[in-house]
Amino acid sequence: MCCPIIQLTKELISQESISPNDKNCQKILIKRLKKIGFIIKNISQNKTSNFWAIHGQKGKTLAFAGHTDVVPAGKIKNWKTPPFTPIIINEYLYGRGSTDMKGSIAAMIIAVERFIKKKPKHHGRLAFIITSDEEGKATNGTIKIIENLLNNKEKINYCIIGEPSSKNKLGDTIKNGRRGSITAKLTIFGIQGHVAYPDLAKNPIHNSINFLQKLITTVWDNGNNYFQATNMQITNIYSNSIADNVIPGELFIQFNFRFNTQLNDVIIRKTITKMLSIYNFNYKIEWVLSGKPFLSKKSKLITTAIQSVQELTGITPNLSTDGGTSDGRFISKLCNNIIELGPINSTIHAINECINIKDLKKLSLIYERIIELLLI
């Protein structure tokens, strides 16, 4: 008989839950959680499936957070196995979502099942925050769950997100924060004209060169003890030119900041506005704030997670805040102690995504040990 963690992971992978469509993943999870006494609250929004689950009456709350949605499989012909047909090859379980993050969710669920079986009247509360809108726009997912919990004056003392945080070996990295992310969508207006008569036109591409150079060369900060330096990247540039003999009338530039706690989105906006004013542009700009930076400093959750990883793997994890954004940016509004602890991230979003079976089993034991140490 297949072990419970592998079996549950396979069930979840079999659901073609491309964001934000959950398919039947959350039905599978809710059925298991109800069976062990969890109270479920459906907080679904539009086409996004969300739920909050709670077990226990009082005391400190440890929440596990995750997402059942996945990114598209890409070119299926390039997969060695069908992406939504879980198959084990040489001790690796293949399938879209195996690492990001259906494997982690299965490991969490099984860890909680084992713990409650041993201690049905445990101290504190166990909870789950599950969404199907993490890989997509993230507008109707965890953010809506947290809004609901805040409105109902819920409290979370500790939160573990199952994102694939490990780099080379299971448990070698624990994320204890993330940088913020803000995108600028800038349009610089010129005057369209014929390339043979540049004196009658105003080329926004030529006029923006100095601004772009300043944007690229500006040092925003040097980072700090917890975060690397703020990074700016131009992600798109195009004009509305319709022919090779037409000077364009508009230039669109999109750029993104991954910023640390040395900055905030207000400072970034003001600085860019000041830079633009130097060049006297006619422009419009739209800002999209995806998330602010958050940081969990040394705490009982972090020390407990480090101890649990050490006990079960012999590895001492590094604390890190690198990488992209995660749903921790929403959960941080309710909880100050957040970590991301999950499997090796080398195949996430890739063709032939897979997870080591031994790692998956050990990850569940790590989660269970954290529960035991926190809810004593």
Describe the structure in your own words.
The structure is a single chain. The chain has 376 residues and is an alpha+beta fold. It is 31% helix and 25% strand. The chain has nine helices and 19 strands. The protein has helices at residues 4-13, 25-35, 98-118, 142-151, 204-217, 265-278, 300-313, 328-331, 357-374, and strands at residues 39-42, 50-55, 61-67, 87-89, 92-94, 125-131, 158-161, 173-175, 177-178, 180-189, 193-194, 231-239, 246-247, 250-259, 282-291, 294-295, 318-320, 338-340, 354-356. Strands 1-2-6-3-7-18 form a six-stranded mixed sheet, with helices on both faces. A hairpin with a 7-residue loop joins strand 1 and strand 2 (50-55). Helix 7 crosses helix 9 (357-374). The longest helix has 21 residues, at 98-118. The chain is elongated and about 80 Å long. The chain starts with a helix and ends with a helix. The model has no long low-confidence stretch (mean pLDDT 96). It is an enzyme of class 3 (hydrolase). This is Succinyl-diaminopimelate desuccinylase. It comes from Candidatus Providencia siddallii.
